[in-house]
Design brief:
Length: 413
């Protein structure tokens, strides 16, 4: 949270210093039963224990070594379920989606937890009362939103991921030292908006610039080295800069941070490019450049595991997860460079031998494709999933694929 000590993993913040532990043994026993019922898969657990390979007749399924729920996601879900148990009878709101997975969000909504608009200007924040409970999602929330919730005296359940809060610490430090935070991320993403709000600092005088890719980073580097028209520069970064951002002044001292779910290799390339630009501008000195490695460990593990999977002999790849999940999208980008890759939300997207509904990351919409499933006798399919995808959806995908291939799961799986 902005300008405050982060909540402990088990506490709910009140308008007074008192804190309530919602992760008591009886509550968590109830939560565990619910979570296992909704998201567990014995099949996936057994496959993991057996090296991630399932052989069913002429079909081989290979799972990436690391996939699915990460610790931060599990913790966020646990806290949301615990809040539903502890505060039954109270109005419970969630600032946007708890994570980027529609199946999980539907389960959360079924608990009676309502979604609350997550922008400081949204009117429904004004209807909160001190009796309400507000859950901050795993991505965090903009400082202004949290301040608005606090102003009503609401009880706050903070599920913000620790990796995200580590980035906030870095950008707040930048603001204190008048270093502009260059944030590698998606300007509309909840996490990036939350991070940008912290980059303004306690006094609101800090600055940030959000960069999506190497092309945009190149514009920044060119301006730093060659100068240019500030108005034209700002026009190319609409809705991606802090209020009053002046590229002539605010690109003098920069520090690179990132949305934790971005592609590490791209973040590192952006960091190298901007560091080089500072050195060229400042006669070889990099004193005005800072960089901190803030890629989430779980995100990196899933990317590394996919690279390992792609080095094995597989014919195609299925990536399971929410279409608005950044870390899942990057898995699709990695797979697409090597072999046919299909990004599906769940097993329902696999409609038949000939048709599949999948998300096109380029057109940013779900489309239907034909001829997706090879008719060859022997087929090896790789499967991975983003950090917000539960194991039950992976099992359903495996079962659907084997059914289309006319295969039965081996005994003991």
């Amino acid at each position: 949270m902005a300008n405050a000590r982060p909540l402990s993993f088990t506490d709910v913040a009140l308008s007074t210093p008192t804190r309530i532990n919602i992760r008591t043994p009886d509550v968590m026993a109830h939560v565990q039963a619910q979570v296992e019922k909704h998201y567990r898969s014995e099949l996936v657990e057994k496959l993991r224990a057996q090296g991630g390979v399932l052989q069913a007749g002429n079909t081989t399924i290979r799972l990436a070594k690391e996939f699915g729920f990460c610790y931060g996601v599990e913790r966020a879900i646990d806290l949301a379920y615990a809040a539903g148990k502890v505060f039954a009878g109270s109005r419970i709101f969630l600032l946007g989606e708890i994570i980027h997975n529609p199946d999980v969000n539907a389960q959360i909504e079924a608990l009676g937890i309502r979604y609350l608009a997550a922008h400081p200007a949204d009117a429904d924040l004004a209807n909160l009362t001190a009796d309400d409970v507000v859950i901050v999602p795993a991505f965090g929330a903009e400082a202004g939103v949290v301040d608005a919730v606090k102003a009503h005296g609401c009880r706050i359940v903070d599920t913000t991921c620790g990796d995200v809060m580590s980035v906030w610490k870095r950008v707040r430090q930048n603001a204190t030292e008048r270093v502009t935070s260059i944030i590698h991320g998606k300007a509309a993403h909840e996490e990036t908006r939350a991070t940008a709000s912290r980059a303004l600092g306690q006094d609101g005088c800090g600055h940030f610039l959000i960069v999506l890719n190497m092309e945009e980073a190149g514009r920044i580097a060119d301006f730093m080295i060659q100068g240019g028209d500030p108005s034209a520069f700002l026009a190319s970064f609409t809705a991606a800069t802090s209020p009053g951002f002046n590229p002539v002044e605010h690109l003098q001292r920069i520090g690179v941070a990132n949305q934790t779910t971005m592609l590490r290799s791209e973040t590192e390339s952006i960091q190298a490019l901007l560091r080089e630009a500072v050195a060229k501008r400042d006669a070889g000195s990099t004193a005005n450049f800072r960089y901190f490695d803030t890629i989430c460990g779980a995100t990196q593990d899933r990317q590394d595991s996919l690279f390992q999977l792609l080095d094995e002999s597989i014919d195609m790849l299925l990536v399971v997860g929410g279409y608005n999940s950044s870390n899942t999208t990057h898995l699709v980008e990695i797979g697409s460079q090597r072999l046919p890759t299909w990004f599906i939300r769940n097993a329902d997207c696999i409609t038949s031998h000939s048709e599949i509904r999948h998300y096109d990351i380029h057109s940013k919409r779900e489309i239907t494709s034909t001829g997706w499933l090879p008719a060859r006798t022997h087929l090896t399919v790789g499967i991975t999933a983003g950090a917000s995808c539960p194991n039950n959806l992976i099992e359903e995908t495996i079962s659907r694929l084997l059914a289309l291939r006319g295969e039965e799961k081996p005994a003991g799986t």
